[in-house]
Amino acid sequence: MPETIVKLEDVAVFQNENLVLQNIDLEVKKGEFVYIIGKTGSGKSSFMKTLYADIPLKQGNGQVADFDLRKLEEKNIPYLRRKLGIVFQDFKLLPDRNVNNNLLFVLKATGWTDPSKMNAKIEEVLDKVGMKSKGFKYPHELSGGEQQRIAIARALLNDPELILADEPTGNLDPQTSVEVMKVLQEINQNGRTIIMATHDYALILKYPHKTLKCDGSKVFEVVQKAV
Ligand SMILES: Nc1ncnc2c1ncn2[C@@H]1O[C@H](COP(=O)(O)OP(=O)(O)OP(=O)(O)O)[C@@H](O)[C@H]1O
């Protein structure tokens, strides 16, 4: 039986005091790829934020990568985040340093010290996203698709149990979106679990996976139909 990476039981998601989603039951097993879809404002980002403990879980039970979200103390959030790779729509690379140093910054911040191990890791993750030769480029010297690949490489640095991608193709044109999506597919085929929030129905049809829809404060599975 594959290991359970995410388990939610009767979870409610709040933004401050406002209820955004309720009665969420979900189990995600190791190796799955799950889409979260829904209209603007339906709660996709709030749902993702709950999974990475940016929004505290106040109602229901939630487990992510062996962390109990209900009991998670503020001081332990960094330990949960080390088991996650988070990818955002706007890449969030540090503009004042090159790709290698962006990745080095994360490794050092998460406790790595051995320079040769760090260099080997950086080379490994850049290779996984097809960007091995771009380590000396600054973010502004890269296209949006390339920046997102670097952000995915950064998410892979600590061998995460789960990748959370919130609209990772939201700032990219359709062709570049497909290229970034291929990278995520490859990573998933190598056994990595991925939850991806998206608006992009073309991608969902091209790369079908289990799909959950946020609508009217509920989250439910939808069956994809080819059009
Ligand atoms: N920081 C915040 N404080 C209060 N309410 C918020 C905050 N962020 C979002 N909301 C509200 O929570 C609800 C869900 O927003 P959320 O950003 O999760 O939706 P979304 O589906 O990700 O939308 P989009 O596709 O536009 O990113 C919306 O009604 C929004 O107005």
Automatic annotation (TrEMBL):
GO molecular function: ATP binding; ATP hydrolysis activity; transmembrane transporter activity
Entry keyword set: ATP-binding, Nucleotide-binding
One cellular component term from this protein's GO annotations in UniProt: plasma membrane
Similarity annotation: Belongs to the ABC transporter superfamily.
Keyword Ligase: no
Functional summary from the UniProt entry: Part of the ABC transporter FtsEX involved in cellular division. Important for assembly or stability of the septal ring.
Coiled coil: none
Annotated ABC transporter domain residues: 6-226
Keyword Nucleotide-binding: yes
Domain of life: Bacteria
Protein known as: Cell division ATP-binding protein FtsE
Organism: Flagellimonas olearia
